[in-house]
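Batch job 17 of 40 flagged for manual review because the log was empty.
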Amino acid sequence: MAISVFIVDDHAVFRSGIRALLEKEEDIQVAGECGSGLDMLQAMSSVKFDVLLLDLTMPGLPGPKVAEEALRRRPSLAIVVLTMHEDEYYLQELFRIGARGYVLKKSTGTELVQAIRAVYRGDNYIDPAMAKHVISPYVGRPTTKTATQLDVLTAREQEVCRLLAYGYTNAEVAAKLFISDRTVETHRNNIMSKLDLRSRAQLVRFAIDNGLLKTD
């Protein structure tokens, strides 16, 4: 019986490439595809699939929240994260949520196929390029700084933080809030400084831990 896969990525050309790659495999079939997590969650009620290929940075509901909700509805679902983020936080967070695979978009198609087969068997799969993060002394440590610092941000900084964590660019945040790109950059620098954050992944973690990422 073929492994049924559903693809979620906001880039249609990328989805088409993945579909073409997977359809060459005799033991894999593509059950469907869409460009957002919310669309996938709606499709879950009518489309059955074994493995979810999930991008992390998409408009609307971010990848980690999509994974949480998908697993709440279907705990047996195997999730492979397919992302450009070569960052230990994302790796740690998605496996904590319950994803079984983590593959970088720069990797070969062979690795993606191996990941799909592995998670379908019930195993875990981590991109070889991420192996250094598996043995990092930081992976698995609980967060102690970000969960209680929301009050140090102004209301505007919280809103900017939320939009940045959703994956919007500075220009897109500026357009949504009717402020200049320079003002967004100032807010961003203030957020990173106040919270002692050093990467976008840490900003996303702060937003998740403090309930800033919510559906509209």
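Reviewer: the log was empty due to a logging misconfiguration, but the result itself is present. The domain at 3-134 is CATH 3.40.50.2300 (Rossmann fold). Unflagging and moving on to job 18.
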